[in-house]
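Tokens in:
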């Protein structure tokens, strides 16, 4: 359970609301990791940009390999999302 205050969807304004709206359009929801970084929307935007770059841009690794590595690292870190 996270102990960082999360900005809920109905509380979001400005840049964070835009980020949340884009997340909902893309994934159908706002994942908790996005809410956790929402206390600093510019950081959230940078985090999502890094994620998109790692997971969806040109790479020597296939998308399947990238997803598998993400699952392995999350498991090793005992991260449940």
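Residues out:
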């Amino acid at each position: 359970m996270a102990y960082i205050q999360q900005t809920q969807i109905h509380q979001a304004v400005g840049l964070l609301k835009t980020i949340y709206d884009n997340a909902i359009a893309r994934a159908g929801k706002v994942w908790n990791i996005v809410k956790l970084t929402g206390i600093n929307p510019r950081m959230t935007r940078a985090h999502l940009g890094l994620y998109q770059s790692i997971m969806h841009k040109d790479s020597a690794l296939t998308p399947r390999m990238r997803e598998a590595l993400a699952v392995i690292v999350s498991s090793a870190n005992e991260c449940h999302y």
